[in-house]
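Pilot study result, target chain (132 residues):
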Amino acid sequence: MAFSTAPAASIVFHPAGFLHVTWLAGPISSAATRAVLERVLLELRTWGCHKVLTDQRLADPPADEDAAWYMLDWLPRAAQQGYRYGAILNSTHLFARLAVHSISLQAMQHSGVVYQHFDREDLAVAWLLAQE
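Predicted structure:
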């Protein structure tokens, strides 16, 4: 089952038991970013899964206010309902890569969600599948 929040991202439930979120290229508004993440929250609950593969390869850096909202609002709610593992496909945009890496390090310290960063999708999927 797929859900699109165009022009921001697509969300697909993978039969192996994780959500696959693909962020689209270009700048994305705060409203669109938050709509995608709220939909991820809904899909995590709907499918009862606790793993997310996030494809950031084409993504621009997140806005500071969106990063703060993610850490302080969205992530605690996601962790409370069972989100545990996030595999991140690194952005080709250097500043986006650095920003997302910093956010994921902070998230691991404060939420218990475990993140790993990858340049190859096959390795990211294999890592997610190895997590219980």
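One observation from the pilot: The longest strand covers residues 9-14. A full batch analysis is planned for the follow-on phase.
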